[in-house]
Amino acid sequence: MIWNKEMECADRETMRALQLERLQETVKYEYEHVPHYAAKMDKAGVKPEDIVTLEDIALLPFINKEDLAENYPTGLFAQPMENIVRIQSSSGTTGKPKIIGYTKGDMEDWGEAVARGLAMCGAGPNDTVHVAYGYGLFTGGLGAHAGAETLGATVLPMSTGNTARQIMFMQDMKSDILCCTPSYALTIAEAVERAGIDPADLQIRAGLFGAEPWTQSMREKIEKGLGIRAHDIYGLTEITGPGVATSCEANNGMHIQEDLFYPEIVDPNTLKPLPPGETGELVFTTLKKRGVPMVRYRTRDICYLMEGKCSCGRTSVRMSRVFGRTDDMLIVKGVNVFPSQVETVIAKFNELTLNYKILVDRKGGSDSIELMVEFAEGLIIDDIDFVENMRKRVEHALREILQIGCKVRFLNAGTLPRSEGKAVRVEDRRKYE
Ligand code: DLL
Fold first, then answer.
1. Do residues 216 and 345 share a domain?
2. Is the same domain home to 289 and 162?
3. Does the pLDDT at position 433 exceed 60?
4. What's the average model confidence in pLDDT over 124-139?
């Protein structure tokens, strides 16, 4: 089913005209309501009136995650708090998260974007949508929830965890569509197998999986394990949350909701726009958001764009799957983690040095993260009580900042190899293929 034919199947000229109109409105609005961005535009010598064609977007300065950090918490908000009806958030590079606010209209558009994605996996008002993304400041749970409500489906707001209970609800409430991270879908599939349940006996028929990178082989495992069709859904808090783009039944890239989010691919070194088909960094401009509008936000995600009508009938530009990032952000258990956050914690302990390594692994479909860090020179680490106490304090501090558990392993001073260039802080042993 195509949820919004007018927008999803518009001919290119009509869509580009709408995008230009909304881009001009957005840039003017941003200039008038967000002093930080107005100052950036002034510095770049560009005025809202200079945006005459869509290509003129290249004249505008980018917004980076650093702009959010500098303006923490609400410096990029374009509306007073009385018009903000929701706050969502994701990890920042250091101790402070990114905070995004939504107006009522922004919330409606978010629901609309996810509803289009749910429709791509064949969901309709008669379906039960099982939401096993985390609820809370993370956009996964409440984003999928909003989409299912817009669709008029029945929502099961499960949140994550308690896999046995997820499966019980799936069976007893006859869930039709599953929304969760691909790694959690795999965990559920494994638990279904362990419980001796035949996937054919589950009513579930499709799923909307995203928030972390995954591959075709993971898709096949999920599809087989749960007897469903798996769709990829992409998004980020800064732009809205899930639903920015979703893959249809053709499984050939994710359709971008182009009337709401204008995509560009730029060369991450020169920052010059690249044509469709060329791989680079994805940049988004929101075309309707009013709470925290974003002009040329650098997502740091690496992918390419595809033009041309899809066999599903939609005409929107598609993005490939995400191949990696141009920064060092890791996604562990669906949670964004920056090594710099870990470093901020280590720096608070005089007993530790800044010689550390972060180990990320995946066993049985579940991610784990471990920090190896050296004690300061001269500290004796054979006092078990001292070490245990330190472990508790550091693990607690890490959980506070990362929002997920991270095991800590202490090493004697001088154990870790010293860097002779860029320090390699992260070893990611997860295999996606
Ligand atoms: O992860 C929003 C989301 C929730 C998307 C549920 C899909 C499903 P953040 O926590 O702000 O928002 O993390 C955004 O996650 O920049 C990508 O690096 C990564 N990401 C999101 N979706 C995908 C995907 C949500 N389908 C960051 N494939 C983004 C690969 C993804 N990476």
1. no
2. yes
3. no
4. 96
Q: How many angstroms does the Cα of residue 212 sit away from the middle of ligand 1?
A: 5
Nearest CA to ligand 1 atom 12: 236
Separation in Å, CA 121 to CA 180, 208, 232, 248, 249: 14, 7, 10, 6, 7
Whether residue 339 sits in one domain with residue 321: no
Residues 298 and 236 in one domain: yes
**Average pLDDT of the chain, as a whole number:** 94
Question: Residue 363 above 90 pLDDT?
Answer: no
What's the CA-to-centroid distance between 373 and ligand 1, angstroms?
29
| pLDDT at residue 352 tops 80 | yes
Pairing state between β 261-266 and 241-247 = unpaired
Output the ligand 1 site: residues, CB below 6 A: 90, 133, 138-140, 143, 210-213, 232-237, 241-242, 299, 301, 322, 325, 331, 336
From the CA of 133, how far away is ligand 1's center (Å)? 12
pLDDT, tens digit, 9 for 90 and up, residues 291-332: 999 999 999 999 999 999 999 999 999 999 998 888 889 999
Give the Cα separation of 282 and 289 in Å (integer).
18
Print the domain residue range for 386. Answer: 335-428
Torsion sign over Cα 348, 354, 355, 359: positive
Q: Whose CA is nearest to atom 20 of ligand 1?
A: 211
Q: What is the pLDDT of residues 169-221, one digit of tens each?
A: 999 999 999 999 988 898 899 899 999 999 999 999 999 999 988 878 789 98
* Of 327, 345, 361, the domain-final residue: 327
Atom of ligand 1 nearest to the CA of 209: 8
CATH number of the domain that residue 421 is part of:
3.30.300.30
Q: Is the pLDDT of residue 365 over 80?
A: no
Q: Are residue 385 and residue 351 in the same domain, yes or no?
A: yes
- Give 300 Cα–ligand 1 centroid separation in angstroms: 11
Neighbours of 72 (CB within 10 A): 15
Cβ-Cβ contacts under 8 Å for 206 (sequence gap 6 or more): 121, 122, 123, 176, 177, 178, 228, 229, 230, 231
What is the number of the ligand 1 atom nearest to the C-alpha of 133? 6
Residue 433 inside a domain? The answer is no
Determine the residue of 135, 282, 300, 336 to mutate for testing ligand 1's pocket, defined as the one with the most ligand atoms within 8 A of the Cβ atom. Answer: 336
* DSSP helix/strand/coil, 70: helix
Q: How far is the CA of 415 from the centre of ligand 1 (A)?
A: 36
